[in-house]
Amino acid sequence: MNKRVAALTPSSILTFNQKISKIPDIVKLTLGEPDFDTPEHVKQAAIEAINDNESHYTNSRGTLGLRKAATHYLDKKYGVEYDPETQILITAGATGAIYSALTAMLNPGDTVIIPTPIFPLYIPIAMLGGATPIFVDTSDNGFILSPEKLQQAIEENKDTVKAVILNYPTNPTGVTYHKGDLQKLADVISKYDIFVLSDEIYSELTYDGTHVSMGSILPEQTLVMNGVSKSHAMTGWRIGMICGPADVINEIGKVSEFTITSATTNAQAAAEEAFKNGMDDAAPMRSAYIKRRDLLIDGLSRAGFSCPNPNGAFYIFAKIPDSLNQNSVEFCNQLADEAKVAVIPGASFGPGGEGYVRISYAASEADLKKAIERIQKFAEQKV
Q1: pTM confidence score
Q2: Three-class secondary structure assignment of 200-232
Q3: Which listed CATH number (3.40.50.720, 3.40.640.10, 3.40.190.10, 2.40.128.270) goes with 40-278?
Q4: CATH match of 3-37+282-381 with 3.90.1150.10
Q5: In whole angstroms, what is the distance from residue 166 CA to residue 143 CA?
Q6: 46, 68, 161, 312: which has the fewest Cβ within 10 Å?
């Protein structure tokens, strides 16, 4: 058995979700799973591909049609320009992009700077490559990585650091980075021979203004990861992408080819349609998420919770009231058992997460109202 694999534990998020799913009448606000359906025109594109017997391997980098559609989409949306022939790779979801990129990039003994709280997937993948995660707690800065903290982390590890992870709008906090924030980080990063892995899968779920891609600010050192999972409610279709300098994409492409050969053919056809003719498919979802966010924040504040106002994604990172159990794992187990509401412990997201819970509002308004009522009653009984 690979010792690095043996040292890893299963995802605490999925493990907790599976555990509480057995509780009768539980309201689950745990996973980042949009409750919207994939747009009809996108589904029809996949059906047509199946009927046309498009059931064979594609180019390992993805069909050229999809790569062209994706690069056009990114250019129109965020002003980032990539050559579809050499600078983009279609992956098995954004997860596939993260895995292939870190595997291609890392050697044993390298370090990766990871601002936390953050979606924990990056951590075990870095460790599988023999690298060491360097955590930078952002909880004292509104959950935004400051250039000063980044500079310090790089300097303390400058002989080993290979990459910096950015994820925005951020899972679990819903906080995003604006152009000024990104420019300050780019000013620091540009002084070093390192890469930024910019996970922008929630880019279309930016509420205030337009999403700014790190690829538009520091293109020569940035690998942009995105896909159709959140923008087009296509989580199960498993189509992601990674874009960046051609020589780096070439190396990442080797890993992806050895891992999956190529992404599913009819799913690529669906993603091509999504990018071509679904430029604004996320708009109604975004409006619904804003309404749900406001509903949830109001209800949580009445129960004594405080949290940063999310300006993207579909998560609230709520501070547990001082009157309740501050151990997030114990609190979430208690909330599930006694109030029949399931949320994710903040400890799952790294340093700065303890004392918080992540609440997904990618759920129906009816479920959110039921959860709020139960959480408020639970909090009142514990005072």
Answers
A1: 0.95
A2: CCCHHHECCCCCCCHHHCCHHHEEEEEECCCCC
A3: 3.40.640.10
A4: yes
A5: 12
A6: 68
